[in-house]
Write a structure and sequence with these properties.
The protein has about 325 residues and is α/β, with parallel strands linked by helices. The protein has helices at about 5-20, 35-45, 60-70, 95-110, 125-135, 155-160, 195-210, 240-245, 250-260, 285-305; strands spanning about 115-120, 140-145, 165-170, 185-190, 220-225, 315, 325-330. Strands 3-2-1-4-5-7-6 form a seven-stranded mixed beta sheet, with helices on both faces. It holds the Pfam family TRM13. It is an enzyme of class 2 (transferase).
């Protein structure tokens, strides 16, 4: 016999159902689970010596390297456990360690107190939501959004056994969230390329819709672990003004995105690097460092955009277990 649901739960379910579902991806263009793109990038970098970064002319590579070298993009290390306490020194299994640190940031922020809905953007199987639900013991409902229609591998059933959970199969670019979801907290690991920009705009639209209905309050807190910056696009990037202000053009932006792929090159001791490996005037280590700097540049533009809307916004290194290790925090 199906258990009775409270009026609050019925309203939440209806709000979750009412979110826009336009632009659902076909099976031929599905996104992998969260975190998979970064692992694919690392694997590809180890197996191939060719990438889009290798198509950037030498003069432009060196020019961008000089420009980015003059910018300060220091990112503090803030690796936590799921409880919110500092992470132990000993390394853990990669994805578990990343998820625990991300959950730790959410828990320690206090943003879950009084929250009605946790939005898991690019949710994949829902492992992050499940870990957050277990660690925080929150009574908030979970709305998992991903454009992959394959549900056989999902953790949704486990989430529903402990509380309210629904899945929305749609591309974030076309999602319009219902203000009836109440006070939300948004999380993601990892949101690939321009999908991060889609997520940021989606939350801004949600806050604007709430304001239009007279529901005043702070903007939706977010915890976004970014990745795969080589898949960012100029037309979707949230802070084009940041790029232009630093003297870079739309074409330079495309080069920055392409060169960010070098950040996933596997670290190799200098003695193991084959002779004559330098490309475009940069050796293996210099290319890897430039790729990481390109990632920080793109995330710094997003951080500036967030600081225009939030009282507190920061970019931190939330894990030492992956090269995709940046977390945007805004509340």
């Amino acid at each position: 016999m199906r258990p009775c649901r409270s009026r609050l739960e019925e309203n939440w379910v209806e709000a979750a159902r009412s979110c826009s579902r336009q632009g659902v991806a076909s099976r031929a263009h599905v996104m992998p689970d969260h975190g998979v793109w970064s692992e694919l990038a690392v694997a590809e970098a180890g197996q191939r010596s060719f990438s889009k970064a290798d198509l950037v002319p030498r003069a432009r590579v060196l020019a961008l390297a000089r420009r980015l070298a003059d910018l300060d993009f220091e990112v503090p290390l803030a690796e936590l456990q799921a409880s919110g306490a500092p992470a132990p020194v000993a390394a853990t299994e990669k994805h578990v360690g990343q998820e625990c640190s991300l959950v730790g940031h959410v828990v320690s922020s206090g943003c879950l107190e009084g929250a009605d809905t946790v939005l898991d953007l690019g949710a994949g199987r829902g492992c992050l939501s499940e870990r957050l639900q277990q660690a925080a013991g929150t009574r908030a409902g979970f709305l998992l959004i991903d454009r992959d229609p394959q549900k056989a591998r999902c953790r949704d059933a486990a989430l529903r056994r402990r509380g309210r959970a629904r899945r929305l199969v749609a591309d974030l670019q076309h999602v319009r969230l219902d203000p009836a979801l109440g006070r939300c907290v948004a999380v993601t690991k990892h949101l690939c390329g321009c999908a991060t920009d889609f997520g940021l705009r989606c939350l801004r639209a949600l806050d604007e819709d709430k304001a239009a209905l007279g529901r005043t309050g702070p903007p939706t807190p977010l915890f976004f672990a970014t990745c795969c910056h080589h898949r960012c696009t100029w037309e979707h990037y949230v802070n084009q003004a940041f790029v232009l202000r630093h003297g870079l053009s739309e074409g330079d932006f495309a080069d920055v995105c392409a060169l960010s792929h070098w950040a996933t090159l596997q670290a190799r001791p200098p003695e193991e690097a084959p002779r004559g490996e330098a490309r475009e005037g940069l050796d293996w280590g210099q290319r890897r460092a430039l790729g990481q700097r390109c990632k920080r540049f793109l995330d710094s533009g997003r951080l500036e955009w967030l600081r225009g809307r939030y009282a507190t916004a920061a970019l931190v290194q939330y894990t030492t277990l992956s090269v995709e290790n940046r977390l945007l925090v805004a509340r």
